[in-house]
């Protein structure tokens, strides 16, 4: 059975739909610790920041309507300091109407492959809310292992939230690489 979507590199033309998908998750979920949905202009700025690093930013689009974005994923910097350049942090968001179609799994698998091809060493996932079982399960299914949990590090919707940290080795370091 073929899936009803394809994955491609995101473009500036996708940012409005990406903003709507993310905005829904900001306002209704705990996967993001943002409290207010960012504007399209702010999301364009973020998109440009990832693009200028030449890091993967991808979308899943309907096969029959390739202009309809079902979800997106990107590999952003884990931290801004130079020594972290071999490590990326993934972000994945799926439109509410596209849940349970395999979009998240396909996006993360493609993101992992692209990051491996680019030579990144580690991918880290910082999952908002330790009760976010779908995201934790997705990352586990694709080979991530648990690093740990920061407890009560945020508050949203009037309750304290944890952050779950997971990691995946993309390309192991050579034994003497640190010299």
Q: What brief labels describe this structure?
A:
179 residues, alpha+beta, Aminopeptidase, 7 strands, globular
What class, by secondary structure content? Answer: alpha+beta
State the end-to-end CA separation: 49 Å
Mean pLDDT across all residues, rounded? 95
CATH architecture: 3-Layer(aba) Sandwich
Structurally, the number of domains stands at 1
In short:
With 179 residues, the chain is an alpha+beta fold. The protein is 28% helix and 32% strand. It has helices at residues 15-28, 40-52, 103-117, 133-141, and strands at 5-9, 57-62, 69-77, 87-94, 122-128, 145-156, 159-169.
Describe this structure in words.
The chain is globular, with a radius of gyration of 16 Å. The mean pLDDT is 95. The chain has four helices and seven strands. The chain has a seven-stranded mixed sheet. By secondary structure, it is α+β, with helices and mostly antiparallel strands. It has a single domain, classed as Aminopeptidase.
């Amino acid at each position: 059975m073929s899936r009803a979507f394809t994955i491609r590199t995101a473009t500036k033309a996708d940012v409005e739909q990406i903003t709507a998908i993310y905005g829904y998750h900001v306002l209704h979920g705990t996967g993001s610790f943002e409290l207010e949905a960012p504007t399209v202009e702010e999301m364009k700025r973020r998109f440009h920041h990832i693009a200028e690093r030449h890091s993967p930013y991808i979308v899943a689009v309907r096969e029959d309507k390739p202009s309809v974005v079902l979800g997106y994923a990107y590999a952003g910097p884990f931290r801004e300091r130079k020594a972290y350049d071999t490590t990326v942090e993934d972000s994945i968001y799926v439109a509410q109407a596209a849940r349970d179609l395999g979009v998240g799994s396909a996006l993360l698998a493609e993101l992992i492959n692209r990051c491996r091809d680019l030579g990144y060493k580690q991918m880290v996932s910082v999952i908002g809310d330790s009760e976010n079982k779908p995201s934790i399960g997705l990352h586990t299914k694709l080979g991530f292992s648990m690093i740990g949990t920061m407890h009560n590090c945020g508050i949203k919707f009037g309750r304290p939230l944890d952050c779950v940290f997971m990691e995946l080795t993309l390309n192991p370091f050579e034994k003497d690489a640190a010299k």
